[in-house]
Design a protein that fits this description.
The chain is α/β, with parallel strands linked by helices and 483 residues long. The chain contains 13 helices and 19 strands. It folds into three domains: 2-69 and 97-182 and 287-343 and 462-481, 3-Layer(bba) Sandwich (FAD/NAD(P)-binding domain), CATH 3.50.50; 186-285, D-Amino Acid Oxidase, Chain A, domain 2; 358-444, no CATH class. The longest helix has 26 residues, at 340-365. InterPro entries: FAD/NAD-bd_sf, Flavin-dep_Halogenase_NPB, Flavin_halogenase.
């Protein structure tokens, strides 16, 4: 049996749900094929404000996520680098995240991912679970659809004008685009992780922070998921692989014992016994990219395309933002506003820039001979944002560096409210002078004007999200505008 869609999405994780929703919101016909049946387990539990307040708002799911009871995360606490004492960062260190948007969540991914997938269904995506994709179908050098097995074990084909592969790190079809993965020379670590049925919390206001603590063999993450559930993972050098494979649970517990800051939080706390948290899991070879992210008819998003070391919790952000960029290219090509090659080139340029910023920064971050200030300085150097060092670090750690309105939706909302209020004060004459001049929107407009003028004079780079000549984004965030 054959069916035809505007878009076929492979994989129903955050990348797949985002791409599918963003294209269905424009009224297109979208099929999403997911191998498993949700809820399903996934690692990657610490989110960024860009996802929670930006992408989730754009997908129409932010309120549901906010109501789900996930642990609020205000930032991170790090026993990292040469300082023996833990230091911390909070998302509120950047002025672009005013309260209450300077927060994210620590989530059980089974629940978070299901919220995103059901939302995709609600906006009209046809979701088929228990439907693994086997291969990609191409005609005349263009991808035209996929072959999959349905719930009954019957082989089927689905034809699509576009295919987005969002089937994660285990993707069987990513090599259709750009050949084999290119593994990072620098990030060769492996991760072994499991769960405790509770655990002490950091003192307020940091009780919901991710805690990352370096020790001799690598570093540990400590993520408070619920009062009675803590995710604890060790990221260690590849030479420990044999020991981990021999006895994953023993190796994991040895790593925790080797790190007094984390061990102390877990004294006398039992291991989790509820599925799926009753297992110790191992992941390796997870830092990679691709030489190309699209071919005619098909694009990659999320872990299918790339991932880099988890210490800054950037995975779900890169997955959802990359998926949105791909969806914009699809929407623009479908409505004929931007030629396919132009739209996908924009997708790839922006996605690579976002990935590249994390990759470059993380190389500096793994230098353990440095201190907090030096890491903040590196963030400023890599991001080139027009803010102080600490704020630059918070921008990076919050997923805001692109400056894309889709990750800054909350800021746009807050700034718009401020403008409304200023207009009100102007209208009722309660303020002398012009209150509009002190609002962020007006200040930003002047700054952009100054930047453009400066660029025209000196040809200098802009801090704007994409290079000169790049496409701009439609007001709803879902497509590129006609150049
Ligand atoms: P996935 O979430 O993997 O979803 C892919 C989906 O595709 C799955 O549901 C799968 O069942 C489906 N699928 C697979 N094959 C097929 C097929 N053939 N047909 C149909 N469907 C298929 N990220 C963070 O943001 N925060 C963190 O704290 C964090 N910690 C991490 C720790 C470690 C050790 C690692 C390795 C990663 C971590 N990540 C973290 C990264 C995060 O796990 C991923 O970046 C994120 O899950 C990517 O989402 P995705 O939608 O691309 O893929």
């Amino acid at each position: 049996m054959t069916s035809e869609y505007d878009l076929v999405v492979v994989g129903g994780g955050p990348a797949g749900a985002t791409a599918a929703t963003a294209v269905a919101l424009r009224g297109h016909r979208v099929l999403l094929l997911e191998r498993d049946t949700f809820p399903r387990y996934q690692i990657g539990e610490s989110l960024l404000p860009a996802t929670v307040h930006g992408l989730c708002r754009l997908l129409g799911v932010a309120d549901e996520v906010a109501r789900a009871g996930f642990t609020p995360k205000r930032g991170g606490t790090m026993r990292w680098g040469r300082d023996p004492e833990p230091w911390r960062f909070s998302f509120s260190m950047t002025p672009r995240l005013p309260e209450p948007t300077a927060t994210a969540f620590q989530v059980e991914r089974s629940r978070f991912d299901e919220i995103l997938l059901r939302n995709a269904e609600r906006v009209g995506v046809e979701v088929r679970e228990g439907s693994p994709v086997r291969r990609v179908l191409s005609v005349g050098g263009r991808v035209r659809g996929v072959e999959y097995t349905d719930r009954d074990g019957t082989a089927r084909t689905a034809q699509g004008r576009y295919v987005i592969d969002a089937s994660g790190n285990t993707s069987r079809i990513h090599s259709q685009v750009g050949g084999a993965r290119v593994y990072s020379e620098f990030f060769r670590n492996l991760a072994v992780f499991g769960y405790y049925a509770g655990g002490r919390r950091l003192p307020e206001p940091d009780s919901g922070n991710i805690f990352c603590a370096a020790f001799d063999a690598g570093w540990l993450w400590y993520i408070p998921l619920r009062d009675d559930l803590t995710s604890v993972g060790a990221v260690i050098a590849p030479e420990h692989l044999a020991a981990v494979q021999r006895d994953p649970r023993g190796a994991w517990q040895d790593m925790i014992k080797a790190c007094p800051e984390v061990d102390r939080l877990l004294t006398d706390v039992p291991l989790a016994t509820e599925p799926p948290y009753d297992r110790i899991r191992v992941r390796k070879d997870y830092s990679y990219g691709k030489t190309s992210l699209w071919v005619p008819g098909m694009a990659l998003a999320g872990d299918s395309a790339c991932f880099v070391d988890p210490v800054l919790s950037s995975g779900v952000h890169l997955a959802t933002y990359g998926a949105l960029l791909a969806a914009r290219a699809v929407n623009s090509a479908l409505d004929g506003s931007v030629p396919e090659e132009r739209g996908f080139a924009e997708f790839e340029a922006r996605y690579r820039r976002e990935y590249g910023v994390f990759h470059e920064f993380l190389i500096a971050f793994y230098d353990m001979e440095r201190g907090e200030d030096s890491y903040f300085w590196s963030a400023k150097k890599v991001t080139r944002v027009d803010l102080d060092e600490a704020a630059a670090f918070a921008e990076l750690a919050g997923g805001l560096v692109s400056g894309d309105a889709s990750v800054l939706a909350a800021e746009r909302g807050a700034a718009a409210a401020e403008l409304d209020e200023a207009v009100g004060r102007l209208a009722d004459g309660t303020e002398r002078g012009n209150p509009l001049l002190s609002t962020r929107i007006v200040a930003d407009t002047f700054r952009t004007g100054n930047d453009l003028e400066e660029q025209a004079l000196y040809g200098g780079p802009l801090d704007a999200p994409a290079a000169a000549g790049s496409l701009t984004v439609a007001a709803d965030g879902l497509s590129w505008l006609r150049p």
